[in-house]
């Protein structure tokens, strides 16, 4: 009883905190100075049509590196937490419907994922989105083929190398250009082309691969396979 | 005014999520509550980046290169929300794996069965 | 000059690659892992040196080739470098501590740990609040996962609670970040100003700051943290408690400039509340690691409060306070958590096992002392300055709460320490000896704590070596501790003599010289009795020298701080000496608690005092200081605690009685005089600048009551040492009462009595030490008739009690004559009457002492007993010679005392040859001696003549009517000797004081037990606390 009252007070209190924000909220009409700088810089300096991508990969590249790290940590952490004896569990084979569809869809999903991350600088999407799509392809595989064994070593290898390559490109930024994670280590190319925007598509591809393998690895670990 | 409505939606989801975390006894439901709250936060972030009548900050047929600054919404919250989503996912994954192990040890999913440490 | 960004780069690359390295063998992954951690420490050390010593400007790293705010930038200034150097160092040491786990466990833990440390570095350096969020999450997720390094139900459920709390807190932080962006249009701290936030913009700041604050575990929204501290592996806990907290605390520090003052005040108060309640709840805690958890949380609260309440003061002082508290917490908490992991006993009661490992016990003590804010450790300096800041800014509520909270903390820490030193551990499994990787970090931090303390001391106060001599003495004796006890004893004696020789020219005032004789010469003579020690007595002489040197340093202390420093050294060393007694666990703890409470009052009293203009010794320069009334009051109470005044005396009998028998003379005859010295200091200030309220009138009354209460209680003791202890209390009561008169004659008599008391009480305690050495008992009714076996000792006791009681011809008579004259001339007739009555009572216990020990019949078991060893007899007779000298020639001492007092008052006595004249009469010690001898001669001759007619009685042939004795001894006349008086007057002996303090203790424990019930153990309840905490903080801040 007391607890219910306390919960009620807590929730009402939170409403009281957020209410002024709602009532005082005004939709903005114009970009603030910083955002405008990003839009112009993305087009003119980095030649990246997708402004969000240039913010993610370049301007706030350190965040993204951190974000990749967080995901990596989750993979490693889940592995550490779930270590221990394998459990005997009952495996129910997948339905025919699932098996059939997945055999058709998986390849298409993978291609879509790759498309999304390689075109991250041109169109909506990017490394994370592409990686998640790829991981969903693997999820489908795992669901449809319950006895499937994924090779952990290969996944770790891919994870590690793509991560290191990302950092290496960042360091190349220090050595070759003006700062860590500067994309101009590669030629900027022509605005709107696939091979343009310096290292941006390379970084996004590495992220895509890394995210794909990490999420898959989490799924596999949670699936109880060693 | 669309962003006001999404803002309200986001805050409502946030509160619903927290309410769930405070009242549901099942560990899984608590984590689901967390996810709902997290999603609410993401919606709030995106709402704050919206500009009246503007479009996505991707230069394509809809946005001209020369006039881009006046035609797109704020790209920063969009970038932030992506990072936030990934981080939320990572936290959720770790939480879930804790639950798996807790269940293995104690065969219970009720949070009331995990209070041997106190005072 | 390597850019600090390489810490991130290297940690990430190696982190990503570790699992590949591991395939080649754990050796490779471990090498890479430790190399990176070492690299971090080295790099930050280098930067710290550049920034702090070479004063290079703050280093800014712009990422992606753009300047802030377009891209994220990192900054490394002095503060960042210091925090990161220490955090990385702790990280490295905790990793060394975890070496066995890392070698045997999965490679995952290495990766998580490495990236955790990276997260800390990023969080501290980044200037971008969203980036802060990312690093915070890196830190959190790796910590969450690492809590399962030792995986069991407890760690899992604690970890889950931690995640729920941490997850919600970071959600709120994220909301704060985006709202801040919405209002400020930037995420970079360098481009935000406080005026960008007003109205609902403040809510953004609120969310940002309150969520970080939650991560810093404020009471009561911190149950999850306690569970983590209790259950998770010690190595990881040390990282959570120290490294993570430091980084998150620093993040909070970075956003502080944006916050309005109402927020800051609320956070500061919340920090104080946390400090207070954590320590109060710690009182009731019996689990070692959870206790450390309470202490950790409390310390973080204090640190946060100090961040807030030092805003606007001189930066050097501010950094000293914050840095000192932080460093102290970091070193000692990490060290203690590691020791807790080595000891493995969960209950603090079982920590006696630590005695198997002496070095570890020493380190344990060192960390406990550091954490309690004792000198020379960093916390001492920080606390001193912080108290001063709080006094200057008139935050008395905060001040009181901090001090009471600190006292709580000290109580549970010292209780734990005394348990480790004393509690019986015979039935427990002995502790396995820890491996090098476990002992190394603990030792390293112990040494670092000491080194840093000295560094801070030199750096900020430029203290001369004399001030740290007490510590040097301990270190020196530790080095030669394997020598036989006697050799160390002679070395110590030589050291005291050398110290006295060195000190002599520095004692320019008569008053210093006088106390120098009491403190140094008195100690030197008392030291002779310790030469009788047969066992190795490890540590003993170190602490003894520390105490003696601290006494001396009190005399020449030229600032409040130096005085207080020596005072605390004295307290610590005497505590350690008392603790050596066989059953001294409770006694020493009580002594420490009361002394510390006194010390806090002294600290506060000095903080109120105006600055000193002179560089002379404090005792000389204090007369030019205009102390405020509050200083007088708290200082008087503080000093009276040390001198064992009634009401706060309950530590005294226990401490005197339970200390080793050759330590007791020091405690009673000399240590109590330090309290007198303090009161005299206060009196001198009073003479020149008396406050409106007559403080000393009441001090005088307390002295009088102490004198009579002590005398009564002494009469009812069975234990010879307790009897002497209460007698000391009573005698010091006289001294205090006389001092409090603030007249010439009052002071002469007080100092005379002090000197006299030093001699006869030393002699008596050493005599009892000799008796105990032979009979192994302190119970007087188990003795009797020892006059025939120990005539030399008998002579000492006889002479001494004559000197105490104030009958002619010995020096006590002069003391009494002076004191009553002083009272009457002052006009304190009632006080004089009470004291007169007290003198009567003191005959009771003096008679009891000599009668029951030496007269009557010799016990069978004492038939073959020998005289006390020469090492006991020699000092007794030195003191006796002193008593005789001043009895015969009182002017030897009256003259200098007259000179001392004349410095402050007009003289009220004339000295003519051997005669002292006051307005009420005269006293010629020499004459009195001859007259008394003649008077004594007559009965003595009569006794000799009657010798043949005495009748011998068998030992236990006394039959009490209608009382059945429990054992033959209880029929002895000496047992419960003054039963009839006790029945009629026992209520005067104030047992209620004891009851009062017992109930104070009980109440604090009960309150602690009550409040900790908020920690139900349920993760959901903890979350509710967090949400409610946010709501309440919002209400508090919004309301202002």
Proportion of residues in extended strands of chain A: under 5%
Number of E-type strands of chain B:
0
* Helical residues, percent of chain A: 55-70%
What integer value in Å does the Rg of chain B equal?
A: 20 Å
- Which descriptor suits the 3D outline of chain A? globular
Cα radius of gyration of chain A in angstroms: 22 Å
Give, in order, the helices and strands of chain A: HHHHHHHH
Describe the structure.
The complex is a heterotrimer of chains A (226), B (119) and C (1040). Chain A is mostly helical. Chain A is built from eight helices and no strands. In chain A, 69% of the residues lie in helices and 0% in strands. Chain B is mostly helical and 119 residues long. Chain B has a single domain, classed as Orthogonal Bundle (Helix Hairpins), CATH 1.10.287. In chain B, helix 1 packs antiparallel against helix 2 and helix 2 runs antiparallel to helix 3. Chain C is mostly helical and 1040 residues long. Helices cover 72% and strands 2% of the residues of chain C. In chain C, the strands form two sheets. In chain C, strands 3-4-5 form a three-stranded antiparallel sheet. In chain C, helix 14 packs parallel to helix 17 and helix 23 runs antiparallel to helix 25. Chain C is elongated and about 110 Å long. Chains in contact: A-B, A-C, B-C. Chains A and C meet through helix 1, helix 2, helix 4 and helix 7 of A and helix 1, helix 5, helix 6, helix 8 and helix 39 of C.
Give a brief outline of the structure:
The complex is a heterotrimer of chains A (226), B (119) and C (1040). Chain A is mainly α. Chain A has helices spanning 2-23, 33-46, 51-59, 61-81, 96-118, 127-144, 152-176, 200-222.
Give short descriptive properties of this protein.
heterotrimer, B: about 120 residues, Helix Hairpins, C: about 1050 residues, mainly alpha, three-stranded antiparallel beta sheet, about 0% strand, elongated
Map the helices and strands.
The complex is a heterotrimer of chains A (226), B (119) and C (1040).
Chain A lengths: L1 H22 L9 H14 L4 H9 L1 H21 L14 H23 L8 H18 L7 H25 L23 H23 L4
Helix pairs in contact in A: 2-3, 3-4, 4-7, 4-8, 5-6, 5-8, 6-8, 7-8
Chain B lengths: L1 H22 L3 H23 L25 H32 L13
Chain C lengths: L4 H20 L1 H28 L5 E4 L10 E4 L1 H20 L1 H6 L2 H19 L3 H18 L6 H32 L16 H15 L7 H9 L2 H22 L5 H22 L5 H22 L5 H29 L14 H14 L6 H15 L3 H27 L13 H26 L3 H15 L5 H19 L6 H21 L9 H17 L3 H20 L5 H24 L9 H4 L7 H14 L8 H8 L5 H25 L6 H21 L4 H21 L3 H32 L15 H15 L5 H16 L2 H26 L15 H19 L2 H12 L7 E3 L2 E4 L2 E4 H22 L32 H7 L5 H21 L7 H21 L1
Antiparallel strand pairs in C: 1-2, 3-4, 4-5
Helix pairs in contact in C: 1-2, 1-5, 2-3, 2-5, 3-5, 3-10, 3-13, 3-17, 5-6, 5-10, 6-7, 6-10, 7-8, 7-9, 7-39, 8-10, 8-39, 9-12, 10-12, 10-13, 11-12, 11-16, 11-38, 12-13, 13-14, 13-15, 13-17, 14-16, 14-17, 15-23, 16-23, 18-21, 19-20, 19-21, 20-21, 20-27, 20-30, 20-34, 21-22, 22-23, ...
């Amino acid at each position: 009883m007391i607890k219910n009252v306390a919960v009620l007070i807590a929730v009402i209190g939170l409403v009281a905190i957020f209410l002024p924000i709602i009532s005082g909220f005004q939709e903005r009409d114009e970009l603030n100075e910083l955002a405008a700088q990003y839009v112009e810089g993305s087009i003119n300096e980095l030649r990246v049509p997708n402004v969000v991508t240039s913010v993610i990969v370049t301007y706030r590249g350190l965040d993204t590196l951190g974000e990749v790290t967080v995901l990596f940590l989750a993979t490693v952490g889940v592995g550490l937490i779930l270590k221990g004896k394998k459990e005997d569990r009952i495996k129910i084979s997948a339905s025919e419907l699932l098996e059939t569809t997945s055999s058709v869809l998986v390849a298409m999903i993978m291609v879509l994922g790759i498309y999304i991350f390689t075109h991250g600088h041109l169109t909506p999407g990017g490394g994370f989105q592409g990686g998640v799509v790829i991981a969903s392809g693997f999820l489908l595989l795992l669901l449809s083929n319950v006895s499937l064994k994924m090779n952990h070593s290969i996944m770790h290898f891919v994870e590690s190398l793509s991560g290191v390559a990302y950092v290496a490109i960042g360091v190349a930024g220090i050595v070759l250009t003006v700062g860590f994670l500067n994309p101009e280590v590669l030629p900027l190319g022509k605005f709107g082309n696939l091979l343009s925007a310096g290292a941006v598509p390379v970084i996004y591809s590495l992220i895509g691969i890394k995210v794909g393998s990490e999420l898959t690895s989490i799924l596999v670990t949670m699936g109880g396979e060693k | 005014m669309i962003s006001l409505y999404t803002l309200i939606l986001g805050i409502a989801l946030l509160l619903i999520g927290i309410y769930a975390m405070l009242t549901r006894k099942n560990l899984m439901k608590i984590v689901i509550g967390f996810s709902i709250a997290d999603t609410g936060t993401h919606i709030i972030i995106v709402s704050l980046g919206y500009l009246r009548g503007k479009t996505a900050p991707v230069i394509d047929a809809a946005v001209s290169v020369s006039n881009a600054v006046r035609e797109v919404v704020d790209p920063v919250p969009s970038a932030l929300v992506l990072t936030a989503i990934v981080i939320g996912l990572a936290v959720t994954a770790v939480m879930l794996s804790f639950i798996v192990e807790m269940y293995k040890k104690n065969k219970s999913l009720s949070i009331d069965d995990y209070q041997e440490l106190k005072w | 000059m390597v850019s600090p960004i390489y810490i991130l780069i290297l940690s990430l690359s190696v982190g990503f690659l570790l699992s590949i390295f591991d395939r080649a063998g754990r050796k490779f992954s471990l090498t890479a892992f430790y190399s990176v951690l070492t690299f971090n420490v080295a790099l930050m050390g280098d930067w710290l040196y550049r920034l702090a010593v070479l004063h290079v400007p703050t280093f800014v790293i712009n990422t992606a080739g753009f300047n802030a705010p377009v891209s994220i930038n990192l900054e490394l200034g002095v503060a960042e470098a210091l925090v990161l150097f220490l955090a990385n160092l702790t990280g490295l040491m905790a990793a060394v501590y975890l070496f066995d786990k890392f070698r045997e466990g999965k490679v995952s833990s290495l990766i998580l740990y490495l990236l955790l440390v990276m997260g800390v570095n990023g969080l501290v350096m980044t200037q971008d609040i969203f980036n802060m969020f990312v690093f915070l999450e890196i830190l959190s997720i790796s910590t969450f996962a690492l809590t399962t390094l030792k995986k069991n139900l407890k760690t899992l459920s604690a970890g889950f609670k931690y995640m729920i709390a941490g997850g919600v807190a970071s959600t709120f932080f994220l909301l704060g970040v985006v709202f801040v962006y919405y209002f400020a249009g930037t995420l970079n701290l360098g481009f935000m100003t406080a005026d960008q936030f007003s109205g609902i913009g403040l809510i953004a700041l609120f969310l940002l700051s309150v969520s970080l604050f939650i991560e810093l575990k404020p009471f009561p929204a911190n149950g999850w943290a306690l569970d983590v501290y209790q259950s998770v592996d010690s190595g990881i806990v040390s990282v959570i408690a120290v490294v993570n907290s430091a980084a998150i605390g620093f993040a909070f520090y970075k956003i502080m400039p944006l916050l309005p003052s109402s927020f800051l005040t609320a956070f500061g108060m919340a920090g104080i509340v946390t400090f207070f309640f954590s320590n109060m709840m710690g009182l009731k805690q019996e689990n070692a690691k959870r206790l450390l958890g309470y202490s950790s949380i409390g310390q973080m609260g204090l640190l946060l409060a100090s961040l807030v309440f030092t805003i606007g003061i001189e930066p050097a002082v501010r950094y000293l306070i914050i840095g000192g508290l932080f460093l102290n917490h970091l070193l000692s908490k990490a060290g203690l958590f590691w020791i807790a992991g080595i000891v493995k006993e969960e209950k603090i009661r079982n920590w006696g096992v630590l005695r198997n490992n002496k070095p570890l016990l020493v380190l344990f003590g060192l960390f406990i002392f550091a954490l309690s804010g004792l000198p020379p450790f960093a916390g001492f300096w920080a606390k001193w300055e912080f108290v001063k800041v709080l006094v200057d800014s008139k935050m008395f509520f905060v001040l009181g709460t901090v001090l009471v909270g600190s006292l709580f903390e000290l109580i549970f820490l010292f209780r734990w320490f005394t348990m480790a030193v004393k509690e019986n551990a015979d039935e427990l499994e002995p502790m396995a000896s820890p491996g090098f990787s476990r002992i190394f970090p603990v030792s390293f931090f112990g040494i670092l704590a000491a080194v840093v303390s000295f560094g801070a001391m030199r750096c900020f106060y430029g203290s001369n070596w004399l001030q740290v001599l007490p510590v040097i003495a301990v270190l020196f004796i530790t080095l030669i501790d394997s020598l036989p006890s006697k050799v160390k004893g002679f070395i110590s004696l030589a050291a005291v003599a050398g110290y006295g020789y060195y000190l002599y020219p520095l004692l320019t005032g008569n008053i210093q010289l006088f106390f120098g004789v009491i403190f140094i010469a008195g100690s030197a003579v008392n030291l002779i009795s310790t030469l009788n020690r047969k066992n190795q007595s490890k540590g003993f002489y170190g602490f003894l020298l520390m105490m003696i040197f601290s006494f001396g340093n009190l005399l020449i202390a030229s600032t409040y701080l130096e005085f207080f420093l020596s005072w605390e050294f004295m307290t610590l060393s005497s505590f350690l000496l008392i603790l050596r007694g066989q059953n001294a666990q409770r006694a020493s703890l009580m002594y420490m608690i009361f002394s510390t409470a006194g010390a806090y009052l002294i600290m506060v009293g000095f903080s109120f005092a105006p600055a000193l203009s002179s560089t002379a010794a404090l005792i000389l320069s204090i007369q030019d200081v205009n102390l405020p009334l509050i200083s007088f009051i708290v200082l008087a109470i503080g000093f009276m605690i040390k001198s064992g005044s009634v009401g706060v005396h309950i530590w005294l009998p226990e401490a005197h009685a339970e200390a080793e028998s050759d330590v007791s003379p020091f405690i009673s005859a000399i240590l109590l005089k330090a309290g007198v010295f303090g009161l005299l200091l206060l009196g001198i200030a009073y003479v020149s600048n008396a406050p409106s309220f007559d403080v000393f009138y009441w001090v005088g009354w307390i002295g009088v009551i102490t004198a009579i209460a002590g005398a009564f209680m002494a009469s009812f003791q069975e234990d010879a040492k307790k009897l002497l202890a209460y007698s000391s209390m009573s005698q010091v009561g006289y001294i205090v009462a006389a001092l409090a008169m603030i007249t010439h004659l009052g002071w002469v008599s007080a100092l005379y009595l002090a000197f006299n008391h030093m001699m006869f009480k030393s002699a008596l305690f050493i005599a009892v030490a000799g008796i105990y050495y032979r009979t192994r008992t302190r119970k007087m009714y188990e003795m009797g008739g020892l006059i025939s076996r120990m005539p030399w000792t008998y002579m000492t006791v006889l002479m001494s009690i004559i000197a105490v009681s104030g009958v002619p011809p010995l020096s006590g008579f002069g003391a009494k004559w002076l004191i009553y004259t002083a009272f009457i001339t002052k006009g304190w007739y009632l006080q004089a009457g009470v004291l007169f009555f007290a003198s009567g009572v003191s005959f009771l216990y003096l008679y009891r002492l000599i009668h029951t020990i030496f007269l009557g019949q010799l016990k069978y078991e004492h038939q073959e007993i020998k005289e006390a060893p020469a090492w006991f007899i020699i000092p007794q007779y030195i003191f006796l010679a002193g008593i005789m000298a001043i009895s015969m020639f009182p002017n030897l001492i009256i003259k200098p005392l007259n000179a001392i007092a004349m410095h402050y008052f007009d003289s009220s006595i004339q000295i003519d040859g051997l005669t002292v004249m006051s307005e009420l009469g005269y006293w010629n010690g020499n004459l009195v001696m001859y007259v008394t001898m003649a008077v004594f001669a007559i009965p003595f001759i009569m006794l000799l003549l009657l010798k043949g007619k005495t009748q011998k009685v068998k030992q236990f042939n006394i039959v009490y009517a209608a009382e059945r004795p429990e054992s033959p001894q209880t029929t002895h006349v000496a047992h419960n000797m003054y039963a009839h008086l006790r029945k009629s007057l026992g209520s005067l002996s104030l047992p209620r004081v004891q009851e009062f303090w017992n109930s104070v203790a009980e109440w604090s424990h009960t309150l602690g037990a009550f409040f900790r019930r908020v920690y139900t153990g349920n993760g959901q309840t903890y979350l509710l606390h967090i949400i409610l905490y946010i709501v309440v903080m919002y209400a508090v801040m919004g309301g202002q």
